Amino acid sequence: MKRKPIIYILLLIIGLFVFAAVFAPLLSPYSPDAQNLCAGLSGPSVSHPLGQDKLGRDVLSRMIFGARVSLLVGLSVVLISLFAGFLIGAISGVFGGILDQVMMRIIDLLMAFPGILLAIALAAVLGPGIGNVIFALSLLGWVGYARLVRGQVLVEREKAYFESARALGAGWVRIIFRHLVPNLAGPVLVQASFGIAGAILAEASLSFLGLGTQKIPSFGSLLSHGINFLRTAPHLTIFPGLAVFLLVISFNLLGDFIADYLRVENKIKS
């Protein structure tokens, strides 16, 4: 971290978004739904630092609540996908044989479908809502984790500690959660960092298309509402777009730095 001080900036950006999401009702200067039609499309000012939308609603307040939606969807999708993918990948890699072949063919079949298109179709069928968006993004989100974990397990099976645990009579559950989980935490953490960024971007895309949450503002819905006023009120798209950009690039770069750190650690150990 001393060699790459930009990590502190990334953690600060992510921390600010998390802080805003957790304490949104306290930090928001106005209610996100409070309207002032006389001040519609007003630009940034002292009382409204990020301007107001068509209905005179404060953009800053709506973006603070939008951070809550983006992070909630991103973390939920990653946690669900990680849990399912880790179990499936670990079981497939540990037992091998026909079970492994069947699971891999199913995963290959699922990976043939474009994830975002399937999410759009599911969200359109199920209707708008945070729960439906999380379900739609998680349905294929676990596939990448399963392939990653399965590949890592095949490597770990050849190591001495794995054989020692089996020789001492350790059960498969103990081996998976006591031995494999700590040894696979690094690569999975890197994948999870990229997964959060992808889920945030996917949620913004669905909300932009009107398939996300409707009751609570999100970055995607803010962009969708502001795209019609791109010339007359560019602040309606600039600030939400910048927020999505900062969140996505921060998690992606953080994942890169974690991967670099793990490579250095592996070289030192070897």
Explain what this protein looks like in three dimensions.
- The protein has 270 residues and is mainly α.
- It has a single domain (6-20, 61-269), classed as Orthogonal Bundle (MetI-like fold), CATH 1.10.3720.
- It is 74% helix and 0% strand.
- The protein has ten helices and no strands.
- Helix 3 (59-95) runs antiparallel to helix 8 (172-208).
- It is elongated, with a radius of gyration of 22 Å.
- The two termini are 22 Å apart.
Give a short synopsis of this structure.
This protein is an all-alpha fold and 270 residues long. The chain has helices at residues 6-22, 24-27, 59-95, 97-111, 115-126, 130-156, 160-167, 172-208, 219-226, 235-269.
Tag the structure with descriptive keywords:
single chain, 270 residues, mainly alpha, MetI-like fold, 10 helices
CATH topology: MetI-like fold
> If you compute it from the alpha carbons, what radius of gyration comes out, rounded to the nearest whole angstrom?
22 Å
The CATH C-level name is: Mainly Alpha
> What structural class should be given to the helix and strand makeup?
mainly alpha
Order of helices and strands: HHHHHHHHHH
As for the number of domains, it is: 1
CATH second-level architecture: Orthogonal Bundle
What is the strand tally? 0
Question: What is the overall number of helices?
Answer: 10
Name the average pLDDT: 85
Shape: elongated
Helix content: over 70%
Content of β-strand: under 5%
